[in-house]
Design a protein that fits this description.
Elements lengths: L10 H29 L15 H62 L11 H13 L6
GO cellular component, one term: small-subunit processome
Pfam family, one: rRNA_processing
Organism: Lachancea lanzarotensis
């Protein structure tokens, strides 16, 4: 093992290395195409490459895509929020209706109770309201009206 030789990574050295690599790639490509031709295959056609976009154009293109994704996410978030608010409002409405229904039934129960418990001056129960109440229950029940 001889003395260690350090490579100087100067600009000229890097340029020479890049040139060497480009020449090597071109030579390999030429040999590959020649081998294809000798074996009877057709050389692959070059694809019409799109015009290279500048850094600024690429950045703008990506920004547009990002804006679309951000806008879609915002719309999705708004939609979820609306759905959640609609659920909450619906739940509150059902609760309110349930409470009103309970109050209505309680009021009817109290009214019926006050009618049924009426008494005369001497403290005897009145039978008229009790009979009316039973008759109303019978009329409301569908087992007797079939």
């Amino acid at each position: 093992m001889g003395p260690r030789v350090e490579k100087q990574y100067t600009k000229e050295y890097k340029v020479r290395e890049i040139q060497k690599n480009l020449v090597k790639k071109a030579r390999l490509k030429k040999e590959y195409l020649k081998a294809l031709k000798d074996e009877g295959f057709t050389a692959p056609e070059k694809k019409a490459s799109e015009a290279k976009l500048s850094f600024r154009e690429m950045k703008e293109k990506n920004a547009l895509g990002n804006h679309k994704r951000v806008d879609e996410k915002k719309e999705l978030k708004k939609l979820r929020g609306k759905q959640q608010r609609a659920k909450v409002i619906d739940r509150q409405q059902r609760e309110k209706e349930r409470v009103e229904d309970i109050k209505k039934r309680e009021k009817q129960r109290e009214l019926r109770s006050s009618k049924v418990t009426q008494r005369t001056r001497s403290g005897q129960p009145l039978m008229g309201p009790k009979i009316e109440d039973l008759l109303g229950k019978i009329k409301a029940d569908d087992t007797y009206t079939r």
